[in-house]
Design a protein that fits this description.
Layout lengths: L7 H28 L5 H22 L9 H18 L2 H6 L5 H12 L15 H29 L5 H4 L10 H29 L4 H12 L16 H14 L3 H8 L3 H5 L2 H24 L4 H16 L14 H13 L12 H19 L8 E2 L2 E2 L2 H27 L4 H13 L19 H15 L3 H4 L4 H5 L1
Antiparallel strand pairs: 1-2
Helix pairs in contact: 1-2, 1-3, 1-6, 3-5, 3-6, 5-6, 5-19, 6-8, 6-9, 8-9, 8-10, 9-10, 10-14, 13-14, 14-15, 16-17, 17-18, 18-19
Length: 486
């Protein structure tokens, strides 16, 4: 039977560590409640206590397995179950404080936070207590660092959906055993992650943003999450702050392995990376097109047109979801470009979501290769990435992922339409949650929220958030018979 080949105790041990880790962040939110003398302090402490107690119980029940190494099956289960447990226990601060008393809404907000999606059911963010705003932003930050470790350390080991291609960019990780690899990645990339957070916080604070807002927005930026402390997101802040946020969103959408190369004096290797160059080409190209569109079609001043175009392009392609303008008021041409960016996504190995730039790049290379074979059938040619020849299995894995992603996208749109949503809202809801962006189209645009959706739609979108965040396969594969028979 399948359970005889799976070490569930080891899986539960890792879950216990996740819950203990989560409870510490709940305590920091409780400290904010104490500092501001908020009446919801007891609820925040209760959430931390429950999470800590369950985590401690799981730990003591499974502590004898702590030195064992997870295999491929256990690793997939840890990754998938870990995000479900984070989201479930992440509802406690909302439910026990009464700030979001409805279970479907609390789960939606929690999963959106940890998956760094940034979609929200809150109709008045500024009415929320400071501790709840801090907790929302913390969920982004926790989810962001978890994604980096998972993608760069675990996914290449599992060889899921061609993801080993960009795992090769993390050649600094030389150990073959998965546990040492996770520790090595967590240490080095954690330093970069924290460094970016501190740097952005200080720069925005110096530029005039209140310190509390600076911390929360830095959590949401570096994790490409998008939760804000303001109803109008970043729109109410100065142009300088908007440029600072744009820059940090841009670098958060990069492969974090390239940051490591840069900070270790190997910046030239970073510039040789084809995905990085393609990522910049897409951004600069679309920014130029939208700047001209906003300047000529909407009569905006050139600097404002460039700033709004840059911010909206970077926030969408990196799946951050902050906003300074309502792109649904732009000409249809601009809206189509935004929709295209939603489907492209950020760089692999970043905190951003979506299909990812590298997959589209390889797909385009495969199309070009196919055309060349038609013209020169006897020529010897290969699909290459960063100078390496890709074998047929790698290319087909990437193409298969893209097809599967869009099939789920279409299926999700049809499901939401079946439960009563219009076509634009259905597309916007599924596209933005799968890509981890936040705002969508229709009634869930950048100045709207998801509160009005029926509960069944919210639960379904929680699933699409996790599916998109975990690159689909680690979740879907759990429901296949051959996974358990392997």
């Amino acid at each position: 039977m399948f359970w005889k080949n799976t070490n569930f105790a080891l899986i539960l041990h890792y879950i216990s560590l996740i819950l203990l880790f989560e409870s510490l962040f709940m305590l920091s939110a409780a400290a904010i409640a104490a500092g501001y003398r908020e009446p919801i302090l007891s609820g925040m402490l209760g959430a931390a206590l429950v999470t800590f107690s369950v985590g401690l119980l799981f730990y003591f029940l499974t502590r004898k397995f702590r030195n064992q190494e997870p295999g491929r099956r256990e690793s997939l289960l840890i990754v998938s179950a870990g995000w479900f447990f984070l989201g479930f226990f992440g509802t406690l601060p909302y439910l026990l404080t009464g700030t979001i008393p409805h279970v479907a809404n609390a789960l939606f907000e929690s999963v959106s936070g940890f998956s760094t999606t940034g979609s929200s059911i809150l109709t008045d963010v500024e009415a929320m207590p400071k501790s709840i705003l801090f907790w929302r932003s913390e969920t982004h930050w926790i989810g962001g660092i978890g994604i980096i470790v998972m993608v760069i350390a675990i996914m290449p080991f599992l060889k899921v959906s061609g993801i080993q291609l960009f795992g090769s960019e993390a050649s600094i990780v030389v150990e073959e055993r998965i546990v040492p690899k996770m520790r090595y990645v967590a240490r080095n990339f954690g330093i970069i992650y924290v460094g970016f957070t501190v740097a952005q916080t200080l720069l925005m604070w110096i530029a005039g943003m209140p310190l509390f807002d600076s911390v929360c927005h830095s959590f949401g930026t570096v994790a490409t999450g998008g939760f804000s402390t303001q109803n109008d997101s970043i729109a109410g802040y100065s142009p300088v702050i908007q440029y600072i946020v744009t820059f940090f969103m841009l670098i958060a959408g990069m492969n974090f392995s390239l940051h490591f190369l840069l900070f270790t004096g190997r910046g030239r290797q970073m510039w040789k990376n084809e995905e990085w160059r393609f990522y910049l080409i897409i951004i600069f190209g679309v920014v130029a097109l939208l700047t001209v569109t906003l300047f000529l079609k909407m009569g905006m001043p050139l600097e404002a047109a460039f700033r709004d175009a840059s911010f909206q392009v970077v926030t969408i392609i990196t799946a951050t979801g902050f906003a300074t303008d309502d792109y649904l008021l732009w000409p249809i041409y601009g809206q189509l470009l935004i929709a295209m960016l939603m489907l492209i996504g950020a760089s692999a190995g970043s905190t951003g979501g979506g299909v990812k730039v590298i997959r589209h790049l390889v797909a385009l290379k495969k199309i070009r290769h196919s055309f060349r074979r038609l013209i020169y059938p006897n020529a010897v040619s290969h699909v290459r990435y960063n100078g390496r020849v890709l074998d047929a299995e790698q290319v087909s894995g990437i193409i298969g992922f893209i097809i599967f992603y869009y099939l789920i996208l279409v299926g999700g749109i049809l499901f939401l339409m079946a439960v009563g949503l219009d076509a634009a809202t259905s597309f916007g809801s599924v596209a933005t949650t799968m890509a981890g962006i936040g705002p969508g189209f229709g009634t869930v645009g950048p100045v709207s929220n998801f509160a009005h959706l029926p509960d069944v739609a919210k639960y379904f979108l929680c699933l699409t958030m996790i599916l998109g965040r975990l690159e689909i396969y680690p979740v879907v594969i759990l429901f296949t018979p051959w996974f358990w028979k392997a």
